[in-house]
Amino acid sequence: MKVSIIGQGYVGLTISLFASQVHDVVGFDTSREVVATLNRGMSHIEGVDSDALAEVIRKGKYKATTNPSDISDSEIVIIAVPTPLSIDRKPDMRFIDAACQTISKNLRRSALIINESTSFPGTLRNYIKPGIEKDSSNSINHLYAISPERVDPGRGDFNQRNTPRLYAGLTPEASEQTRVFYTSFCEKLVEVSSPEVAEAAKLFENTFRQVNIALVNEFAQITHALGISVHETLDAADTKPYGFMKFTPSAGVGGHCIPVDPTYLAAKAEALGAPATFIRQANDVNLGMAEYVVNRVVQDNGGSIEGKNVLIVGVAYKPNVADVRETAAELVIKHCRAKGALVVWHDDLVKNWNGESSSHLSGADIAIVLTKHESINPEAIKSSAPYVFDTTGKINGVATF
Ligand SMILES: NC(=O)c1ccc[n+]([C@@H]2O[C@H](COP(=O)([O-])OP(=O)(O)OC[C@H]3O[C@@H](n4cnc5c(N)ncnc54)[C@H](O)[C@@H]3O)[C@@H](O)[C@H]2O)c1
Known about the structure:
This protein is α/β, with parallel strands linked by helices. About 40% of the residues lie in helices and about 15% in strands. It contains twelve helices and 15 strands. An eight-stranded mixed sheet has the order 3-2-1-4-5-6-7-8, with helices on both faces. Strands 10-9-13-14-15 form a five-stranded parallel sheet, with helices on one face. It has a two-stranded antiparallel sheet with strand order 11-12. Helix 1 links the parallel strand 1 and strand 2. Helix 4 packs across helix 5, helix 7 crosses helix 9 and helix 7 packs parallel to helix 10. It is globular, with a radius of gyration of 23 Å. The model has no long low-confidence stretch (mean pLDDT about 95). It binds nicotinamide-adenine-dinucleotide (NAD). Nicotinamide-adenine-dinucleotide binds next to helix 1 and helix 4. The site of nicotinamide-adenine-dinucleotide has 29 residues, from helix 1 and helix 4.
């Protein structure tokens, strides 16, 4: 089948590589830089292997493009564009709108349109379908389905093949065609009764993480006040073989999903007059952790970090990836600078970020570890500054929550 995938980022490129083992894939992206890099056989996404990409390009099974008319004869079109928050932290649907326009203006045959972008329940039925049909110059009837993406970039044990995939079509025919498509490269498919169930399940998965992370972040503050170790206490609780799942404290949540998706659920809930208390509260707790960490560092350093050289270790939002979207490092650095510290950062995966480059892992007065990539040696971190505050709980013998 000819498959077009709109958006060639973490989700779109990952799915492109799996799909191109079986189908002919066009990866449409508005970024010329991304498209040029991909067509040279170079992946910009962790977990998507450049050699495997070069191989499907060589076999003629994949090409990236910025030309929207390349999707015109697709049998399947997948939407994998960003769904961020606006500056006032509301769902920002501009990229979905643009993808709908690309489809309605360029797709010249009836196709199965599958949304993989994360969004509020009702997006497929009440937003994407009308969005595509309102601009269509002709009366082509498409089929519509949702299959929310669960990819966890940088993860080795679960991938597109072995992660169960939820799906639902707007019609039984759309559901069936969606099942057939994903069966070609996914081992376990789970059909649900409506697109809204699939959309809500995806949001709830990430809300579950967001709320539990907030809970453990609050707990870290309680254990500190109690004068006991949060990590030892969590390990103790984790010996219970049922009814407990361990989450660990941090300087805040990052990435495109956990800090963002729950707000899509909250916005929809509130529009319907339903409560979203936990989601709002969890957001506040998680966003407050950066300041809490900096205050702890200030306390440990005689009440001031003014004029001190502070080294932030790891600015990617999680280990072993170069992704800095919504990273807690942004707020930690802001709070340190507001207290007069001279801040640099070290991250051998990120290298350049916010117009700054990764510094040496040495010579600081204070090091604050936010993310510990496997490539970073704990001993090198310990010797980078006389005082180290580790938010990851992975470095022994230094200050932590
Ligand atoms: N990253 C993850 O781990 C993850 C996991 C599950 C679900 N999701 C969801 O998947 C969706 C995509 O996320 P992502 O992480 O792949 O984003 P991304 O930022 O990595 O990639 C998005 C790509 O889309 C391109 N793009 C933007 N507007 C476009 C348009 N109008 N037409 C074509 N291309 C366009 C961008 O240039 C970019 O290359 C989001 O809804 C996200 O919430 C992400």
